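P.,

For your records, the input lines for the assembly:
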Amino acid sequence: MSDLAFVALSAVLLAAATAVVTAKSLFRATFALSGVLVATAGFYLLLTAPLLAAVQVLLYTGGVLTLVVFALVVAGSNTEDARWRKPVPAALMSLAVFAALAVSARKLPETPPLRGLQSGKDVGRLLFSDYLVPFELLSVLLLGAVFGALLIARKDRSV
Amino acid sequence: MTLGNLLVVAAGVFAIGLFGVLARRHAIGVLLSIELMFNAVNLAIVAIAWSKGLIVGVVLVMFGIAITVAEIAVGLALVLLASRVAKSVVLDDLSELKG
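Structure tokens returned:
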């Protein structure tokens, strides 16, 4: 059962990922990216991390895709601009990286017992005890990003 | 479903994203491909955390997701600025700083 789900999710994930880099229209690429993100959320469910799957769909898929679609509408999405430049060296480079990563992944010893994560409560406890300082720093970072984005993108810049 | 297979799938998505970063001409296309690579890394982290039973991996990925959202917000703001100042979002046209 989990093997079947693994194969199906992998197929969806890789097909959607290919669509992200090959689609002529960037709107299509954006929706393919949402497919990638949802398929990854499926993987998280399979890997017994349901909380992470929920965060992925709500925050990542919802937030990021809305932002990207807005930017595409404002910045324009000429489909001719979306084409590739020098695809052959880029493909060679990424094939080499894939080969290196896949070979090293295959060399890993198979871990016999898979205990699973059973997250949720434990993640929350960890997040608000051991990792409280990084958590709060992250909120400062997000605030900085919001201010930075506003500062960069505002209209009445003096530069 | 083994750790090795999961990592190979993550490596595949990472390589596809790398191709997009190198080959796409539109700045937003490059940002989408960066998201792809980031997602592959997250998947690899969760796969390893799953095989070792480490909940810390989930916390790490949550931090990562929040940082990505911040990154994409600033990145898109830069794209909007480029589209206004340079009248183009094609990376080949944005070569003013080239030596």
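Two observations worth noting. Chain B touches chain A through 73 residues (CB under 8 Å). Chain B has three helices and no strands.

Regards
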